[in-house]
Amino acid sequence: QVRLVQSGADVKKPGASVKVSCKASGFTFTSYAFHWVRQAPGQRLEWMGWINPDSGDTKFSQSFQGRVTLTRDTSANTAYMELNSLSSEDTAVYYCARGYPHRSGGDTYFDHWGQGTLVTVSS
Amino acid sequence: EIVLTQSPATLSLSPGERATLSCGASQTLASSHLAWYQQRPGQAPRLVIFDTSVRASGIPDRFSGSGSGTDFTLTISRLEPEDFAVYYCQDYGGSLFTFGGGTTVEI
Predict the structure, then answer these.
(1) Distance separating the N- and C-terminal Cα atoms of chain B
(2) pLDDT of A67-89, one tens digit each?
(3) Which of B97, B103, B104 to mutate to test the interface with A (most CBs of A within 10 A)?
(4) Is A102 in a helix, a strand, or coil?
C-alpha cells in the first residue's frame, strides 16, 4: 500500500534552516509528483510547492519563493523540503503529499499524505 | 490568485443529520479540479472528493460533491460519528494550489 513516512519533529532557532524528509513506498517513486503543505497552529492548509521526482522540476507558491528548496533522492525513494531563514511564523506541521495522477505537479490532487512533521521555531 | 471561501465556518449537527458545506471561488474555476479533504484532530488530511464529484477510494457513498463555476458543495447525507472533523476545499487546476479556510463539522 502507498505510504509516506516523514522525519520526526524538530526545533530550530530563528534564522536557521530545517530539512524534512518524506520516504515513499508502495508505488513507483518517479511516477507521481510530491507536494509540500504546511499548517500553522489553528490555521488553514497552505500549499508550498511541488517537485517532479523524475526530472527534479519544481514549482513554488509565491509566499515561499526563494526560501524553500525541494529535492529528491530517487535511489532512496525520498523527497525533501528545506526551508531557510526560519522565524516564529514558520512554526507549523509540514506535510508531504503525493500528487495524482501526474509526475508533474500541475492538475494533481493529493491522494496520500505523510503523517506530518512538527517544526517549532523558538529562541 | 483564486481565493476559496468556505461557509459556514462551523456547522453544529447531530449524528444522522445532513451536512451541507459550501466552497465559493473568487473567480470561475476553469476546470472541474476541485477537491475536498477531511482532517480529524491530530491527523493528516484525507482526500474525500476529487474532480468536484468523484469519491476517493474507500470513501462511503454518504459523501457527495457537486458544483461548477464559482460554487461548490460537499454533502454528507447522514452524519456518522467519525464524520465530525474539519473539511477543506482545494482548487488544483493549473500549477498553483489553493485551500479554503475550512468548515468544522461539530456535534
Answers:
(1) 34
(2) 999 999 999 999 999 999 999 99
(3) B97
(4) coil
